């Protein structure tokens, strides 16, 4: 008899990791031994990327070397670039995340990504770095093609986050926006054994290639219960419209059994620390959207506590992530792809860690259908 586990594998520990963890009751998460929020406040995206992939925060020389290495592999290979217009057309309705999934799969084939267990750890790490550097190029090119615009080639002289905004708009971003997006990206690189990370590790445990692991992770991220909510949280703000409607709107939705987007979390039983950071970032910009978002957050927390007592529902990362991305001029269709730009670094760190273990992840399910064997009816 196999041991039973809770629905949704809630709280089940399935592996050891050195990459980080989430402490839901404390409202704390960390990348390796450092507070992720502190890293996002004080470091660069490249620093945290180096930490996740190589285990240490870089000193000045290592930072310069790593930054140059990542910038050198940003451009899409010609075969991939040539296919992107067709990918953008075919995924126009599904959006840039579906386009990314398709383009990354192609890029993996073009790069000749081999099964993980056939590669040396050094080669796996090089492939992972290249994939992380390429993702912003692919999502921005797909977005622009979808708008009838030409893709903008990456610039090696800009940091990762600033280059991302540059490729999106064709203009060098102002430093405040570049820093805000960099902080968002750093804060969402990794977050315990979330669904997309788990998916990536399950695929990695089979020894499949890096592109297979990453495209599976993107598929998991695309669901609204995981990464697909930040634009919906903003849609909620728009649907409410004015401060006098906040209470009635929220109550009606919760009483109708609907979920408020940007609230609730599988692990956090208190405020999501990423949300606290992004609220600070949003407040740095100020303005009516930020004031309104803060007012909705306060009322939603109170109404959820009253109408869903004991569920401990609080704001999650997606609520203020949407506000920050809106303030930085990102189109809403790019919110979840921007999440992928960050999370690909965490997924690939997890894939590298998983690939060092050769045990396939293969759980079991309890069969609850009609007792077998039932004779097969004659055809
Ligand atoms: N609004 C209203 N009620 C909610 C919400 C919400 N956002 N979230 C959970 N609940 C309620 C459920 O209806 C349920 O109520 P019940 O006990 O009366 O049936 C109870 O709280 C527990 O809900 P579960 O679905 O069991 O919680 P779970 O931990 O499985 O779900 C999740 C977590 C998926 C994030 C959920 O809170 C949700 O759907 N939130 C809205 C979508 C969202 O913001 N997603 C982004 C998550 S952050 C991220 O992935 C990066």
Task: Please mark out the parts with pLDDT under 50 across 5 or more consecutive residues, or reply none.
Answer: none
Count of DSSP H/I helices: 16
What is the CATH homology-level superfamily of the largest domain?
Citrate Synthase, domain 1
What is the fold named in CATH at topology level of the largest domain? Citrate Synthase, domain 1
- Through-space gap between termini: 36 Å
Helix-strand topology string: EEEHHHHHHHHHHHHHHHH
CATH architect. name of the largest domain? Orthogonal Bundle
The count of β-strands is 3
Mean of residue pLDDT values: 95
Strand order of the largest sheet: 1-2-3
Largest sheet: 3 strands, antiparallel
Q: What Rg do the Cα atoms give?
A: 21 Å
Instruction: Output the structural class.
Output: mainly alpha
Give the % helix.
Answer: 55-70%
CATH class of the largest domain: Mainly Alpha
**Which small-molecule ligands are present, each listed once?**
acetyl coenzyme *A
